[in-house]
């Protein structure tokens, strides 16, 4: 009997030694567990939540944007993670529905134990602001709402591109500086959502300040297939320019109907109207359309494209098969990861926020305007470029500028 117990004891000790030598599973600071590997992650895994619109009202631009975010996390994982940590993006389609976004947010926070979130829409981002602040989770939205610049209400929200209001101000400044005859007259076309309405009052205020006349406003739904009545109403005011706050689908509808009606107004879209996805649905009605460019087109010869090419080639894919919104998602994820790199403690939202606030004039290789965050300012930039559709292609014709 004594020999049996001795044998059992030896077996237990041997198993324990083998388990210890293998490394087992390494615990996160958040209590999760992830297998460590020689490619990174020996300190654990940092999880990031992702709210994606792939099938909802803004899925036309949301799907390639989400693809870019996911691609960057795959790329950084292939490089061994960050500072000994494995990074994992836990993302899901919420179809542009605010209640679904709130439900997923709770899942990311409570079940997945994420340290930060990559968000999407204006309505859901603004609805989540108080929870994000209370939970101390850095939140990078694809919304560039001016409201998110208020650090008292949004201390954990960060803007990675010029706000919609700053975009509109820059466009109005460009109109003022380049218009030749008298006071320029401008119409505003937008959708009846938090995103659509976000820059409207700020645009009207700034136009009045610099001597530009806002003569009309028209609401066009994000899923609209006809905008004839709105454009006929706008035409009565004879605006020189019309600023569009829409995504590709509604923008194409507006441009096609304007061409059909013979309207000569110069249409200028803010950033979500921009991109290659507009061109096949707008056709030749897109010719001459001007739009805000916050992020580079894949066909631009820029230093920042090198790592994207490297990643895509490793997947057997080509850069020319991607569009500008893919680049936009990639860059957003890249900026967040830069904050994680700079954080003293990248396993907590507070730590990542402090890391982000160390980012000073981050050079993105031309993929976007350089970004700076400080404890007093989470608006990364106010800079945009402008592009014009010529011969079926967006051609950038300005350097980065503000208002």
Which descriptors apply to this entry?
403 residues, alpha/beta, Rossmann fold, 2 domains, seven-stranded mixed sheet, five-stranded parallel sheet, 14 helices, 40% helix, globular, Amino acid/amide ABC transporter substrate-binding protein (HAAT family), signal, Peripla_BP_I
Give a verbal description of the structure:
- The chain is an alpha/beta fold.
- The chain folds into two domains: 45-162 and 301-372, Response regulator (Rossmann fold); 164-293 and 386-396, 3-Layer(aba) Sandwich (Rossmann fold), CATH 3.40.50.
- Helices cover 40% and strands 16% of the residues.
- The chain is built from 14 helices and 14 strands.
- The protein has helices at residues 2-22, 59-78, 98-110, 122-127, 129-135, 164-178, 194-197, 200-210, 228-235, 248-261, 278-282, 305-314, 324-342, 349-356, and strands at 25-27, 33-35, 45-52, 86-93, 116-118, 139-140, 157-158, 185-190, 213-219, 241-245, 266-269, 290-293, 385-390, 393-396.
- A seven-stranded mixed sheet has the order 9-8-10-11-12-13-14, with helices on both faces. A five-stranded parallel sheet has the order 4-3-5-6-7, sandwiched between helices. A two-stranded antiparallel ribbon has the order 1-2.
- Helix 10 (248-261) links the parallel strand 10 (241-245) and strand 11 (266-269).
- Helix 2 packs across helix 13, helix 6 (164-178) runs parallel beside helix 8 (200-210) and helix 13 (324-342) packs across helix 14.
- The relative contact order is 0.13.
- Residues 1-39 have low confidence and may be disordered.
């Amino acid at each position: 009997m004594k020999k049996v117990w001795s044998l059992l004891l030896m077996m237990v000790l041997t198993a324990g030694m083998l388990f210890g030598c293998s490394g087992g599973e390494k615990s996160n600071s958040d209590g999760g567990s992830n297998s460590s590997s020689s490619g990174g992650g020996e300190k654990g895994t940092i999880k990031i939540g992702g709210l994606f619109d792939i099938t909802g009202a803004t899925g036309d631009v949301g799907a390639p944007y989400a693809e870019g975010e996911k691609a960057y996390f795959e790329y950084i994982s292939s490089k061994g993670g960050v500072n000994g940590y494995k990074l994992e993006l836990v993302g899901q389609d919420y179809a542009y529905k605010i209640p679904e976004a709130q439900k997923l947010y709770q899942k990311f926070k409570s079940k997945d134990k994420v340290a930060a979130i990559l968000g999407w829409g204006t309505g859901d981002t603004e609805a989540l602001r108080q929870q994000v602040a209370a939970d101390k989770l850095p939140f990078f939205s694809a919304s560039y709402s001016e409201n998110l610049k208020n650090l008292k209400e949004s201390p954990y929200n960060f803007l990675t591109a010029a706000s919609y209001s700053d975009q509109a101000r820059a466009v109005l400044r460009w109109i003022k500086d380049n218009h030749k005859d008298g006071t320029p007259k401008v119409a505003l076309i937008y959708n009846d959502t938090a995103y659509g309405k976000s820059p409207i009052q700020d645009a009207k205020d700034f136009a009045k300040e610099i001597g530009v006349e806002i003569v009309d406003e028209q609401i066009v739904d994000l899923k609209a297939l006809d905008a004839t009545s709105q454009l006929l109403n706008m035409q009565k005011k004879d605006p020189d320019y019309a600023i569009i706050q829409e995504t590709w689908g509604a923008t194409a509808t507006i441009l096609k109907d304007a061409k059909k009606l013979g309207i000569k107004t110069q249409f200028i879209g803010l950033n979500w109207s921009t991109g290659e996805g507009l061109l096949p649905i707008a056709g030749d009605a897109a010719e001459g359309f001007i739009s805000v460019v916050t992020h580079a087109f894949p066909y631009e010869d820029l230093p920042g494209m090198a790592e994207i090419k490297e990643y895509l080639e490793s997947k057997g894919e080509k850069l020319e098969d991607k569009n500008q919104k893919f680049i936009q998602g990639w860059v957003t994820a890249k900026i967040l990861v830069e904050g994680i790199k700079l954080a003293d403690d990248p396993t907590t939202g507070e730590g990542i926020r402090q890391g982000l606030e160390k980012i000073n004039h981050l050079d993105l290789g031309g993929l976007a305007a350089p970004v700076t965050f400080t404890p007093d300012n989470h608006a990364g930039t106010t800079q945009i470029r402008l592009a014009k559709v010529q011969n079926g292609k967006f051609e950038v014709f300005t350097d980065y500028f503000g208002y």
